[in-house]
From TrEMBL:
Any Pfam family: FBPase
Family affiliation: Belongs to the FBPase class 1 family.
Matches recorded under CDD domains: FBPase
Native source species: Arachis hypogaea (Peanut)
Full protein name: Fructose-1,6-bisphosphatase, cytosolic
Length: 339
């Protein structure tokens, strides 16, 4: 007989239970958000299972190969996009979908429309997909203005108008991190149950961290404040220890570590990419929302990231996010330069 603690834990806080609890705090709620989220969670589980099989691609025929039925197998990022689009549409709760993989926004047909708009990167960290390094899905949720007449304006809104945001990391475990605007909570997939279980309640980022995270290969093209900041991470002038460098090159994994351990993640502008690399709607905004909700900050080099008003679906922005004190330092350097 199994006498382990787990065997007696019949009260596990699954993500559905968690969201239902949250919903009960809003008596006017009709459960639409819970339904939308359960479709997002299902898509994440699907992608997680595909990512886990990716290493066997040659054996079982994935990613550009032909399978036993003679069907061409899809690349993981294309497959993930399809999984999310289908899950979101079939939830019956969305009107507009913006995906990193699609040039244009998807307008859901009237009979399946609902009150939410979802912006997402179905599989972020493309350079890491084929070598088994952590990758992830990032998403943000807005409310549509008028379900009968959804327009692009509904998604070209500042990040501070997002209702919810999160990511799912496909790493050594599958981790789902969510904010609905009242803190940040982390869930880990229990493969034996097929359920995400609350493992990281009320995540708070340390006020100051010991890690900086940036692609230093771009250093020759950085502007003054970024170059100065990174130099100071390595050669501090105040007698403190140098910071450690950690850079995975997958935003979800780098941000996840930053949330849990503290520190700063930077994707600055440089001479070659004056707007940085990361996309405002489905990379910068959701991660900035999560950071602020965990007690950290997110800054673009000019302003609070969540105040940005995007003009285009795939717009980019420089981003500095992480521990409150660390982002304060970079803000001070940019303020000094602006004077
Ligand atoms: P992608 O959307 O093509 O995957 O690019 C986004 C990724 C982020 O996950 C990561 O933070 C960044 O690009 C890494 O870029 P670089 O390889 O220039 O350091
Ligand atoms: Mg991306």
């Amino acid at each position: 007989m199994d006498h382990s603690a787990d065997a007696h834990r019949t009260d596990l806080m699954t993500i559905t239970r968690f969201v239902l609890n949250e919903q009960s705090k809003h008596p006017e709620s009709r459960g639409d958000f819970t339904i939308l989220l359960s479709h997002i969670v299902l898509a994440c589980k699907f992608v997680c299972s595909s990512v886990n099989k990716a290493g066997l691609a040659k054996l079982i025929g994935l990613a550009g190969e032909t399978n036993v039925q003679g069907e061409e197998q899809k690349k993981l990022d294309v497959l993930s996009n399809e999984v999310f689009i289908k899950a979101l549409i079939s939830s019956g709760r969305t009107s507009i979908l913006v995906s990193e993989e699609d040039e244009e926004a998807t307008f859901v047909e009237p009979s399946l429309r609902g009150k939410y708009c979802v912006v997402f990167d179905p599989l972020d960290g493309s350079s890491n997909i084929d070598c088994g390094v952590s990758i992830g899905t990032i998403f943000g949720i807005y409310m549509v203005n008028d379900v009968n007449e959804p327009t692009l304006e509904d998604v070209l809104q500042p990040g501070k108008n997002m209702l919810a945001a999160g990511y799912c990391m496909y790493g050594s475990s599958c981790t789902f991190v969510l904010t609905t605007g009242s803190g940040v909570n982390g869930f880990t997939l229990d493969p034996s149950l097929g359920e995400f279980i609350l493992t990281h309640p009320d995540i708070k980022i340390p006020k100051k961290g010991k890690i900086y995270s940036v692609n230093e290969g771009n250093a020759k093209n950085w502007d003054g404040p970024t170059a100065f900041y990174v130099e100071r991470c390595k050669f501090p002038k105040d007698g403190s220890s140098p910071k450690s460098l950690r850079y995975i090159g997958s935003m979800v994994a780098d941000v996840h570590r930053t949330l849990l351990y503290g520190g700063i993640f930077l994707y600055p502008a440089d001479k070659k990419s004056p707007n940085g690399k990361l996309r405002v709607l489905y990379e910068v905004f959701p991660m900035s929302f999560l950071m602020e909700q965990a007690g950290g900050q997110a800054f673009t080099g000019k302003q609070r990231a969540l105040d940005l008003i995007p003009k285009k679906l795939h717009e980019r922005s420089p981003i500095f996010l992480g521990s409150y004190d660390d982002v304060e330092e970079i803000k001070a350097l940019y303020a000094a330069e602006a004077k």
